[in-house]
């Protein structure tokens, strides 16, 4: 019996390697415990073949169990920034009226990234040093691909990279100008001013981008009257946070979890002028799983339902067989194609399309044409057909979106796109592969499968 069991265990090749004994992990665990983190003692850090570093459970975990519980002051969030007077003085001790000149000019993610770069620069002079040292040194997002490789990447991926670059470049320029006009005599700020670089900021930006979790603190602090704080700089909300250890749990679309902010009754709508680190020592951020996990398997949480374009460009990984994937087409792309087929949309048709929102969300997925794409083609084909009520057809499109007559209209355009993607894949086959490029290639191959299925239907 024992020998048989040993044979069975031997056959089950483990796809992970425990890493709790690594020096940086020992330091991280000690630091977390010292600052009051409480996590399930079944959990251990490990490196997995498929996903890299993640969290392993050595014992059965059942739905409803708490995975971890962090004091609010052990997370980097809006209160952390507001309480850091040295960082705030970058904007306050300044020859410019920064809060006026740059009012609502940046996202909170950008401000978080600037703050993270500032913390990292201080090395072991900040409480966050051990946590920062545990973070990845680089990220597997397409933003970091060489420019010559990007030439053959799919246009959808390039579009996301372009938007990311615009945000990073514009916010970096603002922070660079703020530092240049800073008049502080504090050595840390003066040295940071000399050393802050685009590379530092890009690392910080994608650290926030890939590792932040949703955290709503609006019931805890009052962010309505913030005219004299650096929160006036941001143009969105402050509902993201960096959570040590939690950010090491990998994503699965099948995972279900729930986060809770456990707040004492006497801590509510605190004015930002009354903030103190001790005030939030009793506020806990907790996460529970709604899944069962067997012993010696990886524990997952869900970052939200996402298609692979978002997963590879925002987080740096690809999920095979993702039903949410689709191939997008722009309205300009479609109308230009129609003109080559001597189909020119009239002003009435264009007005109808715009009024019904049919110029957006044009894509093909594994099920066929999107609702809007189908509706657009109905306008192309039937708008001037007096025997057809186009509006009624559009509203019934959800249940009859497999009209081959409509598919045939755009089939040549789809074939052209398919051919273009295949040509790009052929060129990329001669490029040295890396994780980033592999993800892009996987997504482009997924696009090929979607378009080939559409053409065959």
UniProtKB/TrEMBL annotation:
Instruction: Please give the Gene Ontology molecular function terms for this protein.
Output: protein-lysine N-methyltransferase activity
Q: Cite the InterPro entries for this sequence.
A: SET_dom, SET_dom_sf, SETD3_SETD6_MTase, SETD4_SET
Highest taxon, organism lineage? Eukaryota
Looking at the record, the residues that make up the SET domain are 41-304
Chain coiled-coil ranges: none
Q: What name appears for this protein in its UniProt entry?
A: SET domain-containing protein
Q: Which organism is it from?
A: Helicoverpa armigera
Gene name? HaOG202335
């Amino acid at each position: 019996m024992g020998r048989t069991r040993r044979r069975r265990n031997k056959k089950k090749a483990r796809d992970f390697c425990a890493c709790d004994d690594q020096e940086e992990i020992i330091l991280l665990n000690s630091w977390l415990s010292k600052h009051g983190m409480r996590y399930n003692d079944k959990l251990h850090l490990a490196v997995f073949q498929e996903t890299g570093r993640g969290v392993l459970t050595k014992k059965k975990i059942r739905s409803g169990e708490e995975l971890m519980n962090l004091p609010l002051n052990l997370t980097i969030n809006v209160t952390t920034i507001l309480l850091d007077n040295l960082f705030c003085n970058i904007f306050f001790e300044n020859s410019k009226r920064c809060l006026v000149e740059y009012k609502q000019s940046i996202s909170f993610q950008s401000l978080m990234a600037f703050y993270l770069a500032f913390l990292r620069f201080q090395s072991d002079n900040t409480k966050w040093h051990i946590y920062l040292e545990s973070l990845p040194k680089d990220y597997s997002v397409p933003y970091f691909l060489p420019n010559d490789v990007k030439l053959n990447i799919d246009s959808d991926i390039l579009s996301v990279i372009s938007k990311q670059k615009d945000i990073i470049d514009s916010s970096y320029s603002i922070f660079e100008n703020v530092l240049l006009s800073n008049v502080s005599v504090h050595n840390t700020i003066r040295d940071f001013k000399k050393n802050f670089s685009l590379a530092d900021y890009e690392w910080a930006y994608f650290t926030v981008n890939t590792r932040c979790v949703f955290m709503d603190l609006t019931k805890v602090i009052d962010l309505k009257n913030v005219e004299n704080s650096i929160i006036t700089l941001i143009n969105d909300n402050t509902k993201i946070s960096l959570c040590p250890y939690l950010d090491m749990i990998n994503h699965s679309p099948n995972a279900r979890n729930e986060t809770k902010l456990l707040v004492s009754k006497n801590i509510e709508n605190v004015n930002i002028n009354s903030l103190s680190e001790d005030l939030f020592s009793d506020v806990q951020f907790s996460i529970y799983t709604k899944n069962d996990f067997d012993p010696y398997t990886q524990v997952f949480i869900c970052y939200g339902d996402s298609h692979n374009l978002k997963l590879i460009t925002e987080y740096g990984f690809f999920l095979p067989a993702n039903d949410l994937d689709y191939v997008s087409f722009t309205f300009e792309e479609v109308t230009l194609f129609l003109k080559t087929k001597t189909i020119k949309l009239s002003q009435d048709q264009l007005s109808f399309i715009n009024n019904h929102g049919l110029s957006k969300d044009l894509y093909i997925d594994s099920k066929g044409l999107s609702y809007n794409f189908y509706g657009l083609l109905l306008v192309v084909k039937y708008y001037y057909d007096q025997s057809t009520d186009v509006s009624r057809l559009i509203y019934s499109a959800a249940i009859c979106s497999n009209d081959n007559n409509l598919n045939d209209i755009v089939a040549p355009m789809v074939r052209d796109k398919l051919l273009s993607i295949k040509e790009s894949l052929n060129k990329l086959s001669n490029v040295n592969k890396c994780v980033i490029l592999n993800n892009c290639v996987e997504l482009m191959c997924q696009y090929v499968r979607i378009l080939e299925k559409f053409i065959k239907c």
